[in-house]
UniProtKB/TrEMBL annotation:
Keywords, comma-separated and alphabetical: Metal-binding, NAD, Oxidoreductase, Zinc
Gene: gldA
Residues annotated as domain Alcohol dehydrogenase iron-type/glycerol dehydrogenase GldA: 9-155
The name this protein goes by in its record: Glycerol dehydrogenase
Binding site for NAD(+): 38, 95-99, 117-120, 126, 128, 132
Catalysed reactions listed for this entry: glycerol + NAD(+) = dihydroxyacetone + NADH + H(+)
PROSITE patterns associated with the record: ADH_IRON_1, ADH_IRON_2
Length: 368
Protein backbone atom coordinates (compact mmCIF):
# COMPACT_ATOMS: atom_id res chain seq x y z
CA UNK A 1 0.00 0.00 0.00
CA UNK A 2 1.21 3.49 -0.76
CA UNK A 3 1.38 5.76 2.25
CA UNK A 4 1.01 9.51 1.99
CA UNK A 5 3.95 11.14 3.78
CA UNK A 6 4.52 14.83 4.47
CA UNK A 7 7.56 16.21 6.33
CA UNK A 8 8.67 19.75 7.11
CA UNK A 9 10.81 21.87 9.42
CA UNK A 10 9.31 22.53 12.86
CA UNK A 11 9.34 26.31 12.38
CA UNK A 12 9.91 28.77 9.54
CA UNK A 13 10.55 32.47 10.16
CA UNK A 14 11.13 35.05 7.42
CA UNK A 15 11.46 38.82 7.47
CA UNK A 16 13.63 41.89 7.17
CA UNK A 17 16.43 42.00 9.80
CA UNK A 18 15.05 38.85 11.41
CA UNK A 19 18.54 37.60 12.35
CA UNK A 20 18.53 40.20 15.13
CA UNK A 21 15.74 38.17 16.78
CA UNK A 22 17.25 34.70 16.34
CA UNK A 23 17.80 34.38 20.10
CA UNK A 24 14.03 34.58 20.71
CA UNK A 25 13.54 31.43 18.63
CA UNK A 26 16.61 29.48 19.76
CA UNK A 27 16.84 30.19 23.50
CA UNK A 28 14.69 27.23 24.57
CA UNK A 29 16.87 24.71 22.70
CA UNK A 30 19.66 25.05 25.29
CA UNK A 31 22.46 27.34 26.36
CA UNK A 32 25.31 26.22 24.07
CA UNK A 33 25.26 26.94 20.31
CA UNK A 34 27.77 26.03 17.61
CA UNK A 35 27.76 28.57 14.77
CA UNK A 36 29.04 27.33 11.43
CA UNK A 37 29.85 29.93 8.77
CA UNK A 38 32.58 30.86 6.34
CA UNK A 39 34.65 33.99 6.78
CA UNK A 40 32.58 36.22 4.52
CA UNK A 41 29.26 35.35 6.15
CA UNK A 42 30.78 35.64 9.63
CA UNK A 43 31.99 39.15 8.92
CA UNK A 44 28.55 40.01 7.56
CA UNK A 45 26.33 38.74 10.40
CA UNK A 46 28.43 36.94 13.04
CA UNK A 47 28.27 39.68 15.62
CA UNK A 48 24.55 40.37 15.20
CA UNK A 49 23.68 36.69 15.60
CA UNK A 50 26.00 36.30 18.61
CA UNK A 51 24.52 39.41 20.27
CA UNK A 52 20.95 38.18 19.82
CA UNK A 53 21.87 34.74 21.20
CA UNK A 54 23.65 36.29 24.17
CA UNK A 55 20.56 38.35 25.01
CA UNK A 56 18.64 35.05 25.24
CA UNK A 57 21.29 33.43 27.44
CA UNK A 58 22.84 31.33 24.68
CA UNK A 59 26.62 31.03 24.53
CA UNK A 60 27.97 30.89 20.95
CA UNK A 61 31.03 28.98 19.82
CA UNK A 62 32.24 29.60 16.27
CA UNK A 63 33.35 26.96 13.77
CA UNK A 64 34.91 28.04 10.49
CA UNK A 65 33.56 26.39 7.39
CA UNK A 66 36.52 26.29 5.04
CA UNK A 67 36.13 23.60 2.44
CA UNK A 68 33.47 21.44 0.92
CA UNK A 69 30.36 19.79 2.35
CA UNK A 70 32.54 16.68 2.57
CA UNK A 71 32.91 13.84 5.07
CA UNK A 72 36.26 15.29 6.17
CA UNK A 73 34.92 18.76 6.85
CA UNK A 74 31.91 17.36 8.74
CA UNK A 75 34.13 15.11 10.87
CA UNK A 76 36.61 17.92 11.55
CA UNK A 77 33.94 20.33 12.83
CA UNK A 78 32.03 17.68 14.79
CA UNK A 79 35.24 16.46 16.47
CA UNK A 80 36.32 19.97 17.47
CA UNK A 81 32.93 20.54 19.12
CA UNK A 82 32.65 17.11 20.74
CA UNK A 83 33.47 18.35 24.26
CA UNK A 84 31.29 21.46 24.14
CA UNK A 85 27.87 19.95 25.00
CA UNK A 86 26.37 21.66 21.96
CA UNK A 87 22.59 21.95 22.26
CA UNK A 88 22.04 23.58 18.89
CA UNK A 89 24.01 23.89 15.66
CA UNK A 90 23.33 27.05 13.64
CA UNK A 91 24.41 26.95 9.99
CA UNK A 92 24.65 30.35 8.29
CA UNK A 93 25.43 30.87 4.60
CA UNK A 94 25.00 29.12 1.27
CA UNK A 95 24.10 25.55 0.41
CA UNK A 96 27.39 23.86 1.28
CA UNK A 97 27.66 25.47 4.72
CA UNK A 98 24.05 24.56 5.47
CA UNK A 99 24.49 20.96 4.28
CA UNK A 100 27.58 20.66 6.50
CA UNK A 101 25.73 22.12 9.50
CA UNK A 102 22.90 19.58 9.11
CA UNK A 103 25.42 16.73 9.14
CA UNK A 104 27.34 18.13 12.13
CA UNK A 105 24.09 18.51 14.10
CA UNK A 106 23.26 14.91 13.26
CA UNK A 107 26.70 13.75 14.46
CA UNK A 108 26.37 15.76 17.70
CA UNK A 109 22.71 14.79 18.17
CA UNK A 110 21.92 18.51 18.55
CA UNK A 111 19.08 20.72 17.33
CA UNK A 112 19.64 22.28 13.91
CA UNK A 113 18.91 25.86 12.85
CA UNK A 114 19.38 26.91 9.24
CA UNK A 115 20.02 30.55 8.29
CA UNK A 116 20.29 30.85 4.48
CA UNK A 117 21.97 34.08 3.39
CA UNK A 118 20.94 33.55 -0.26
CA UNK A 119 17.73 32.11 -1.77
CA UNK A 120 19.41 30.13 -4.54
CA UNK A 121 17.98 26.63 -3.91
CA UNK A 122 15.15 24.92 -2.05
CA UNK A 123 17.46 22.80 0.13
CA UNK A 124 17.26 24.71 3.48
CA UNK A 125 14.01 23.18 4.79
CA UNK A 126 14.85 19.59 3.82
CA UNK A 127 16.00 16.63 5.92
CA UNK A 128 18.88 15.86 3.58
CA UNK A 129 22.34 17.08 2.60
CA UNK A 130 24.30 16.75 -0.59
CA UNK A 131 27.74 15.39 0.32
CA UNK A 132 30.72 16.15 -1.93
CA UNK A 133 34.23 14.77 -2.19
CA UNK A 134 37.05 17.07 -0.99
CA UNK A 135 37.55 17.91 -4.68
CA UNK A 136 33.95 19.14 -4.97
CA UNK A 137 32.38 16.29 -6.93
CA UNK A 138 28.94 14.95 -5.99
CA UNK A 139 29.30 11.93 -3.70
CA UNK A 140 25.94 11.06 -2.16
CA UNK A 141 22.76 12.30 -0.49
CA UNK A 142 22.71 12.01 3.30
CA UNK A 143 19.22 11.68 4.78
CA UNK A 144 18.35 12.64 8.37
CA UNK A 145 15.72 11.48 10.86
CA UNK A 146 14.18 14.94 10.98
CA UNK A 147 13.99 18.29 9.19
CA UNK A 148 15.55 21.44 10.68
CA UNK A 149 14.13 22.66 14.01
CA UNK A 150 14.12 26.19 12.63
CA UNK A 151 14.70 27.82 9.25
CA UNK A 152 15.23 31.56 9.63
CA UNK A 153 15.47 33.75 6.53
CA UNK A 154 16.47 37.42 6.69
CA UNK A 155 15.15 39.02 3.50
CA UNK A 156 17.45 42.02 3.92
CA UNK A 157 20.43 39.67 3.43
CA UNK A 158 18.76 38.11 0.36
CA UNK A 159 18.09 41.58 -1.10
CA UNK A 160 21.75 42.48 -0.74
CA UNK A 161 23.11 39.28 -2.31
CA UNK A 162 23.77 39.05 -6.08
CA UNK A 163 20.56 38.85 -8.15
CA UNK A 164 21.89 35.78 -9.96
CA UNK A 165 21.35 33.76 -6.76
CA UNK A 166 17.69 34.74 -6.52
CA UNK A 167 17.15 33.92 -10.22
CA UNK A 168 18.74 30.50 -9.64
CA UNK A 169 16.42 29.91 -6.70
CA UNK A 170 13.42 30.85 -8.83
CA UNK A 171 14.53 28.32 -11.46
CA UNK A 172 14.93 25.59 -8.83
CA UNK A 173 11.48 26.45 -7.46
CA UNK A 174 9.87 26.59 -10.92
CA UNK A 175 10.87 22.97 -11.42
CA UNK A 176 8.90 21.95 -8.33
CA UNK A 177 5.37 22.01 -9.71
CA UNK A 178 6.51 20.60 -13.07
CA UNK A 179 8.11 17.65 -11.27
CA UNK A 180 5.41 17.11 -8.63
CA UNK A 181 2.76 17.11 -11.36
CA UNK A 182 4.54 14.28 -13.15
CA UNK A 183 5.07 12.30 -9.93
CA UNK A 184 1.34 12.62 -9.25
CA UNK A 185 0.41 11.53 -12.77
CA UNK A 186 2.80 8.56 -12.63
CA UNK A 187 2.01 7.49 -9.05
CA UNK A 188 5.68 7.88 -8.08
CA UNK A 189 7.37 8.17 -4.69
CA UNK A 190 8.79 11.32 -3.08
CA UNK A 191 11.96 12.17 -1.14
CA UNK A 192 9.87 11.82 2.06
CA UNK A 193 9.34 8.13 1.32
CA UNK A 194 5.68 7.97 0.33
CA UNK A 195 3.33 9.26 -2.33
CA UNK A 196 2.46 12.99 -2.43
CA UNK A 197 -0.18 14.42 -0.09
CA UNK A 198 -2.84 16.90 -1.18
CA UNK A 199 -0.90 19.38 0.97
CA UNK A 200 2.29 18.93 -1.05
CA UNK A 201 0.35 19.18 -4.31
CA UNK A 202 -1.33 22.44 -3.23
CA UNK A 203 1.94 23.92 -2.00
CA UNK A 204 3.80 23.06 -5.21
CA UNK A 205 1.05 24.50 -7.38
CA UNK A 206 0.92 27.74 -5.38
CA UNK A 207 4.73 27.96 -5.58
CA UNK A 208 4.53 28.17 -9.36
CA UNK A 209 1.73 30.78 -9.30
CA UNK A 210 3.74 33.04 -6.98
CA UNK A 211 6.82 32.80 -9.20
CA UNK A 212 4.95 33.71 -12.38
CA UNK A 213 3.16 36.56 -10.56
CA UNK A 214 6.13 38.08 -8.73
CA UNK A 215 9.38 36.49 -10.00
CA UNK A 216 10.45 39.36 -12.24
CA UNK A 217 9.45 42.01 -9.66
CA UNK A 218 11.48 40.23 -7.00
CA UNK A 219 14.46 39.99 -9.33
CA UNK A 220 14.29 43.73 -9.94
CA UNK A 221 13.95 44.33 -6.17
CA UNK A 222 17.21 42.48 -5.54
CA UNK A 223 18.94 44.38 -8.31
CA UNK A 224 17.91 47.56 -6.47
CA UNK A 225 18.83 45.92 -3.11
CA UNK A 226 15.41 46.66 -1.61
CA UNK A 227 13.02 44.43 0.34
CA UNK A 228 9.54 44.49 -1.22
CA UNK A 229 6.36 42.43 -0.76
CA UNK A 230 7.16 40.82 -4.13
CA UNK A 231 10.59 39.79 -2.85
CA UNK A 232 9.11 38.44 0.40
CA UNK A 233 6.67 36.30 -1.62
CA UNK A 234 9.34 34.95 -3.94
CA UNK A 235 11.78 34.20 -1.11
CA UNK A 236 9.00 32.19 0.55
CA UNK A 237 8.28 30.40 -2.75
CA UNK A 238 11.99 29.65 -3.37
CA UNK A 239 12.67 28.46 0.16
CA UNK A 240 9.54 27.20 1.94
CA UNK A 241 7.03 26.34 -0.82
CA UNK A 242 9.58 24.76 -3.13
CA UNK A 243 11.34 23.05 -0.21
CA UNK A 244 8.17 21.40 1.07
CA UNK A 245 7.00 20.81 -2.49
CA UNK A 246 10.05 18.95 -3.73
CA UNK A 247 10.64 16.93 -0.58
CA UNK A 248 7.09 15.72 -0.01
CA UNK A 249 5.90 16.07 -3.63
CA UNK A 250 8.83 14.48 -5.42
CA UNK A 251 11.53 15.22 -7.97
CA UNK A 252 11.33 13.91 -11.54
CA UNK A 253 13.05 14.51 -14.90
CA UNK A 254 14.23 18.12 -14.50
CA UNK A 255 16.55 17.27 -11.60
CA UNK A 256 17.66 13.96 -13.14
CA UNK A 257 18.68 15.85 -16.30
CA UNK A 258 20.53 18.36 -14.10
CA UNK A 259 22.43 15.42 -12.60
CA UNK A 260 22.94 14.00 -16.08
CA UNK A 261 24.88 17.10 -17.08
CA UNK A 262 27.53 16.19 -14.50
CA UNK A 263 28.47 13.32 -16.86
CA UNK A 264 30.03 15.96 -19.13
CA UNK A 265 33.17 18.02 -18.65
CA UNK A 266 33.62 21.69 -19.40
CA UNK A 267 32.11 25.06 -18.69
CA UNK A 268 28.68 23.76 -17.75
CA UNK A 269 30.06 23.27 -14.24
CA UNK A 270 30.31 27.04 -13.82
CA UNK A 271 26.53 27.23 -13.87
CA UNK A 272 24.55 27.23 -10.62
CA UNK A 273 22.27 24.37 -9.60
CA UNK A 274 19.20 26.43 -10.51
CA UNK A 275 20.58 27.44 -13.91
CA UNK A 276 21.06 23.80 -14.89
CA UNK A 277 17.63 22.94 -13.47
CA UNK A 278 16.07 25.71 -15.63
CA UNK A 279 17.22 24.00 -18.81
CA UNK A 280 16.33 20.59 -17.31
CA UNK A 281 12.79 21.83 -16.75
CA UNK A 282 12.43 22.79 -20.43
CA UNK A 283 13.70 19.32 -21.33
CA UNK A 284 11.08 17.74 -19.07
CA UNK A 285 8.35 19.82 -20.75
CA UNK A 286 9.62 18.56 -24.12
CA UNK A 287 9.55 14.96 -22.84
CA UNK A 288 5.95 15.46 -21.76
CA UNK A 289 4.86 16.91 -25.10
CA UNK A 290 3.62 20.20 -23.67
CA UNK A 291 2.07 22.89 -25.91
CA UNK A 292 3.91 25.74 -27.60
CA UNK A 293 2.04 28.23 -25.41
CA UNK A 294 3.34 26.51 -22.29
CA UNK A 295 6.94 26.50 -23.55
CA UNK A 296 6.75 30.16 -24.48
CA UNK A 297 5.50 31.05 -21.01
CA UNK A 298 8.49 29.40 -19.30
CA UNK A 299 11.07 30.59 -21.81
CA UNK A 300 9.86 34.20 -21.47
CA UNK A 301 10.19 34.10 -17.68
CA UNK A 302 13.61 32.42 -17.76
CA UNK A 303 14.87 34.98 -20.26
CA UNK A 304 13.59 37.88 -18.14
CA UNK A 305 15.56 36.41 -15.25
CA UNK A 306 18.67 35.94 -17.43
CA UNK A 307 18.52 32.17 -16.98
CA UNK A 308 19.78 29.69 -19.61
CA UNK A 309 17.27 28.34 -22.14
CA UNK A 310 19.46 26.96 -24.96
CA UNK A 311 22.34 24.49 -25.25
CA UNK A 312 24.56 27.46 -26.00
CA UNK A 313 23.46 29.09 -22.74
CA UNK A 314 24.44 25.95 -20.79
CA UNK A 315 27.82 25.93 -22.59
CA UNK A 316 26.96 22.89 -24.70
CA UNK A 317 26.59 24.52 -28.11
CA UNK A 318 29.13 22.20 -29.69
CA UNK A 319 28.10 19.03 -27.85
CA UNK A 320 27.83 15.98 -30.10
CA UNK A 321 24.81 13.68 -30.24
CA UNK A 322 27.03 11.19 -28.42
CA UNK A 323 27.60 13.64 -25.55
CA UNK A 324 23.90 14.45 -25.35
CA UNK A 325 23.21 10.73 -25.19
CA UNK A 326 25.64 10.47 -22.25
CA UNK A 327 23.50 13.00 -20.41
CA UNK A 328 20.45 10.89 -21.26
CA UNK A 329 22.16 7.77 -19.91
CA UNK A 330 23.22 9.46 -16.67
CA UNK A 331 19.76 11.01 -16.24
CA UNK A 332 18.10 7.59 -16.55
CA UNK A 333 20.58 5.72 -14.32
CA UNK A 334 19.05 3.38 -11.76
CA UNK A 335 17.72 5.25 -8.74
CA UNK A 336 17.47 8.58 -10.58
CA UNK A 337 14.41 10.69 -9.84
CA UNK A 338 13.32 10.59 -13.49
CA UNK A 339 11.82 7.18 -12.72
CA UNK A 340 9.38 8.66 -10.21
CA UNK A 341 7.65 10.46 -13.07
CA UNK A 342 8.42 8.67 -16.33
CA UNK A 343 9.01 5.49 -18.28
CA UNK A 344 11.80 6.82 -20.44
CA UNK A 345 14.93 5.79 -22.37
CA UNK A 346 18.25 7.67 -22.76
CA UNK A 347 17.39 8.25 -26.44
CA UNK A 348 14.11 9.96 -25.52
CA UNK A 349 15.97 12.24 -23.09
CA UNK A 350 18.56 13.09 -25.74
CA UNK A 351 15.83 13.92 -28.28
CA UNK A 352 14.06 16.10 -25.70
CA UNK A 353 17.30 17.99 -24.95
CA UNK A 354 17.77 18.76 -28.63
CA UNK A 355 14.09 19.69 -29.01
CA UNK A 356 14.08 22.02 -25.98
CA UNK A 357 17.09 23.89 -27.36
CA UNK A 358 15.37 24.19 -30.73
CA UNK A 359 12.10 25.49 -29.23
CA UNK A 360 13.97 28.13 -27.23
CA UNK A 361 15.89 29.28 -30.29
CA UNK A 362 12.64 29.50 -32.26
CA UNK A 363 11.19 31.70 -29.50
CA UNK A 364 14.27 33.91 -29.52
CA UNK A 365 14.27 34.26 -33.32
CA UNK A 366 10.76 35.70 -33.17
CA UNK A 367 11.96 38.44 -30.81
CA UNK A 368 14.50 39.77 -33.26
ZN1 LIG B 1 16.95 21.63 -6.82
Amino acid sequence: MSERVFISPAKYVQGKNTIDRIGDHVGHFGSQALLIADDIVWRLIGERVTDSLKASGVNAEKADFVGEASRHEIERIAKAAAESHTAVVIGMGGGKTLDTAKAVADELDARIVIVPTIASTDAPTSALSVIYTDEGNFETYRFYKKNPDLVLVDTKLIAEAPARFLASGIADALATWVEVRSVLAFGGKTMAGGVPTIAAEAIAKRCEEVLFDYGILAYESVKAKVVTPALESVVEANTLLSGLGFESGGLAAAHAIHNGFTALHGDIHHLTHGEKVAFGTLVQLALEGRTQAEFDRYIALYMALELPVTLEDVKLKDASREDILKVGQAATAEGETIHSGFDVTPEQVADAIIAADRYARLYQSKLR
